[in-house]
């Protein structure tokens, strides 16, 4: 393990957290400090011995401060190797070795997300000199230590006080520095509106938290939020109560929130393993919750419940009666909070409902599949009644509801609905007829008089036969199978109305 003794430090920071204390410690250890602009002024005001950057370069800052550190004496001092040849070249231009670079950048992230900031203001907050200093120091980390995060000041100082700094530590800080500038540049590229699918794509992520484990206890995991933040993401939820969210909590909570945000009427959805096990709308949230619970009182146990209205006392009392992992809502009344917080472990999340229009990412080994989110609304102009019987007004209402719900169920997806209530779900099956059977089994006798929604076309008429057995009266599906006519004829035999949408909603 190599060691290095530092002699000269360059400090130029926008975030001045603990920088005075850092400079005091460095000065006490005998390091010459070079600084710029506001950092220099702050250190000088605190009576610290500090050398202004222009006194080193013998060149004034120009272009309103845009150019001040971009000089051979500075970058030569950072990039030079500790060899006789490099020392000689550096001395020939009046430069000296710089061994410690402490730099953080203009606040592009916060300014670019300020709705009141103009385009010119955002552009002026693109740091040029700072990233250049950081990257130069990180490249030469065999000799130079780079610090871009105030959280690292204490650990570096503790090692400096021993007179040594390990090569492993310098390498760690260099890796962090390159990640920092890469994140910064990604934010800029995103702000300047890249094409939807650019040839080279980077994303900016901030760690929200490290998790106890992933999907299973033997898997390590962490939670990151995308920057700029997506619309109404679980990453932005305020946790009002309960123990920390698990990997599966977060994954299912986001799915639940997407579903409930799709409805304008008071709506409640219960999610298990990323599929709805109950979903309903009603005139009140209380009634919506009752309908959601009654759809599948077994599966909702230990599930995630999302509401698109404030949780009131009456609804909270019902929720309190069963074990729920997470409840998400725009808000909770004080009385509802008083009831629900009696359970120490239940997680209560506050989040404003909104459909996310972010990209859909799917990880495969060695890469990602990226697509637009499936946020398309039902296009009434594409609806086609293909059977002899037209749907009744009640069936039309439930067909539209079923079509909205089935989009959020894993393929092959089948849902049975009635009176704007999800009654049965067939999800994630390898064949569609099995999905029909599962949804019918869950709905039981309630399936009679229900409508059926299918995320894709029916390849065979046997699906219709199964639907007829359980009492389905109307079906909504994309259409487009080579056997559409056989399916239509089966519906006509059983007196089932069927509507084609022309749109498929696969969700693998």
Describe the largest sheet. Answer: 6 strands, mixed
Domain count = 3
At the first level of CATH, what is the class of the largest domain? Alpha Beta
Ends apart, CA distance between termini? 49 Å
Query: What is the average of the pLDDT values?
Result: 91
Low-pLDDT residue intervals, each spanning 5 or more residues: 1-5
How would you name the CATH homologous superfamily of the largest domain?
A: Methylglyoxal synthase-like domain
> What is the second-level CATH architecture of the largest domain?
3-Layer(aba) Sandwich
List the helices and strands and how they pair.
Elements: E1 8-12, H1 19-28, E2 32-35, H2 37-45, E3 51-52, H3 53-57, H4 72-79, H5 84-92, E4 100-103, H6 108-112, H7 119-124, H8 129-139, E5 145-147, H9 153-160, H10 167-191, E6 204-211, E7 221-227, E8 238-241, H11 247-261, E9 267-272, E10 275-281, H12 285-295, E11 304-307, H13 313-320, E12 326-329, H14 334-340, E13 347-350, E14 360-364, E15 367-371, E16 384-385, H15 393-406, E17 414-417, E18 422-426, H16 432-443, E19 451-454, H17 462-469, E20 474-477, H18 484-494, E21 497-500
Parallel strand pairs: 1-2, 1-4, 2-3, 4-5, 11-12, 12-13, 19-20, 20-21
Antiparallel strand pairs: 6-7, 8-13, 9-10, 9-11, 14-15, 16-21, 17-18, 17-19
Helix pairs in contact: 8-10, 12-13, 13-14, 16-17, 17-18
């Amino acid at each position: 393990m190599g060691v290095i003794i530092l002699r000269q430090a360059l400090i130029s920071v926008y975030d001045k957290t603990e920088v005075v204390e850092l400079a005091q410690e460095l000065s006490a250890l005998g390091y010459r400090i070079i600084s710029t602009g506001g950092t220099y002024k702050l250190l000088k005001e605190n009576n610290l011995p500090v050398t202004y950057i222009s006194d080193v370069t013998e060149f004034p800052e120009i272009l309103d401060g845009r150019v001040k550190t971009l000089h051979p004496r500075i970058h030569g001092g950072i990039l030079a190797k500790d060899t006789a040849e490099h020392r000689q070249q550096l001395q020939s231009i009046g430069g000296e070795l710089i061994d410690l670079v402490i730099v953080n950048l203009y606040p592009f992230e916060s300014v670019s997300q300020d709705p009141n900031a103009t385009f010119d203001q955002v552009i002026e907050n693109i740091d040029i000199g700072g990233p250049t200093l950081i990257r130069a120091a990180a490249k030469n980390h065999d000799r130079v230590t780079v610090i871009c995060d105030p959280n690292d000041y204490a650990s570096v100082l503790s090692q400096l006080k021993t007179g040594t700094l390990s090569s492993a530590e310098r390498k760690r800080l260099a890796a962090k520095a390159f990640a920092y500038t890469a994140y910064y540049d990604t934010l800029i590229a995103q702000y300047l509106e890249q094409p939807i699918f650019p040839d080279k794509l980077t994303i900016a992520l901030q760690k929200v938290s490290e998790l106890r484990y992933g999907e299973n206890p033997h898997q390590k995991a962490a939670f990151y939020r995308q920057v700029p933040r997506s619309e109404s993401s679980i990453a932005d939820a305020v946790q009002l109560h309960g123990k920390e969210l698990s990997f599966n909590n977060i994954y299912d909570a986001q799915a639940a929130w997407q579903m409930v945000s799709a409805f304008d009427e008071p709506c409640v959805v219960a999610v298990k393993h990323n599929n709805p096990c109950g979903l309903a709308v009603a005139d009140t949230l209380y009634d919506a919750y009752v309908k959601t619970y009654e759809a599948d009182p077994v599966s909702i146990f230990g599930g995630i419940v999302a509401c698109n209205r404030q949780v009131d006392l009456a609804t909270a009392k019902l929720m309190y009666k069963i074990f729920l992992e997470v409840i998400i809502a725009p808000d909770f009344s004080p009385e509802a909070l008083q009831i629900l917080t009696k359970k120490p472990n239940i997680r209560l999340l506050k989040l404003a409902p909104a459909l996310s229009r972010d990209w859909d990412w799917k990880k495969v080994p060695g890469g990602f599949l990226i697509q637009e989110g499936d946020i398309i609304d039902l296009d009434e102009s594409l609806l086609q009644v293909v059977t002899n019987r037209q749907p009744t007004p009640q069936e039309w209402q439930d067909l539209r509801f079923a079509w909205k719900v089935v989009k959020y169920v894993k393929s092959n997806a089948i849902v049975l609905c009635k009176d704007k209530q999800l009654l049965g779900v067939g999800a994630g099956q390898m064949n569609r007829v099995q999905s029909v059977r599962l949804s019918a089994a869950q709905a039981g006798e309630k399936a009679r008089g229900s409508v059926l929604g299918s995320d894709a076309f029916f390849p065979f008429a046997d699906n219709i036969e199964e639907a007829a057995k359980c009492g389905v009266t109307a079906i909504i599906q994309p259409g487009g199978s080579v056997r559409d006519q056989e399916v239509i004829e089966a519906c006509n035999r059983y007196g089932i109305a069927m509507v084609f949408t022309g749109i498929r909603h696969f969700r693998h």
